[in-house]
Amino acid sequence: MISVHGPFISHQVNVDASGNNILGDAANECTISVDPTDGNKMTIGWRQFNDVTSNFRQGGWGFTSDAGLTWTFPGVLQDNVFRSDPVTNSDEVGNFFYLSLQSNVNQSFFCDDLWRSTNGGQSWVERSPDQGAGGGDKQWLTIDKTGGPGHGFQYQADDGINCDNNFFVEFQRCTDGGVTWQSPIEIPQGPIYGTLDVDTNGNVFVGGEGNTFYCVRSSNAQIGVVPGG
C-alpha cells in the first residue's frame, strides 16, 4: 500500500510477507525510532489487534532497512499477551528499545516491561521480567545519549495509573540498560500525557499536562548514587 499525497509518499508498515495490505488487520498508537548510526534502519511499535472488531491488542512491530521503502511485519512481542501503549527509542550505537505496557483485559493493573533489539528491530529480547519495569499507563521513555555520568540511563514517566497503585504521576530510572528499574518517585506538579528528553548536559526534562502545562527538570537523575534522581 503506497499512497502519494503531493510531495509526500506513504508506505504502509503492517503488511504481509509480500508487502501487501492485510485485510481485516487493525493497529494503532504507533511510535517510530531511527538508528542514529544508519538512517536506513527504523523500527515502529504499535498496538496490534486481532481484527477490526476486536479490543484485544498485543505488542506489534515492524522494521525497515531501506529508509522505509519496504517493511517487514514479523508479528508480536509475545503471542496472546495483552499489551498497550508502545514506546520505542534508540541509543547512540543503534540498539532499539521497546517499552510495553502489560495489563490484563480488565485493566486492573498497569505495569511495563522493556525489550531490546540489537539487530535493527528484526527480533527482540525482554530485558526486564514481565511487568518488571514498573511504570504505568501512558508511559513514555527517553535515553541519556550524552557522554556524562548518566550515559545509557533510561528514564520513564507515567500518568498516575501505575504499577504500584500510588496514583501519583511517577518517574523511574534504570541504570543497567533496562534490566532493573529503581523505585518510583512522584513528579512535582504531576505532568501527565507528556514526554521526556535529556539535554546535552544530562539534565532530564518531563513535559506534560497538569492543571496547566508543566515542564519539570531533574539535574541529578544522571547521578547514579542519588536515589531515583
How would you describe this structure to a colleague?
The chain is mostly beta strands. The protein folds into 2 domains: 1-133, Neuraminidase; 146-229, no CATH class. The chain contains no helices and 17 strands. The strands form 5 sheets. It has a 4-stranded antiparallel sheet, with no helix packed on it. It is globular and about 50 Å long. The N and C termini lie far apart (46 Å). The mean pLDDT is 93.
Runs with pLDDT <50, length 5+?
none
- Given the helix and strand composition, which structural class is it? mainly beta
Strand content: 35-45%
Main β-sheet, spatial strand arrangement: 3-4-5-6
Enumerate how many helices there are, as a single number.
0
Terminal Cα separation, in Å?
46 Å
Please outline the helices and strands.
Elements: E1 2-5, E2 8-11, E3 26-34, E4 42-49, E5 57-64, E6 72-76, E7 83-90, E8 96-102, E9 111-117, E10 125-126, E11 140-143, E12 154-157, E13 170-174, E14 185-186, E15 192-198, E16 204-209, E17 213-218
Antiparallel strand pairs: 1-2, 3-4, 4-5, 5-6, 7-8, 8-9, 9-10, 11-12, 12-13, 13-14, 15-16, 16-17
Distinctive features:
229 residues, mainly beta, Neuraminidase, 2 domains, 4-stranded antiparallel β-sheet, 17 strands, globular
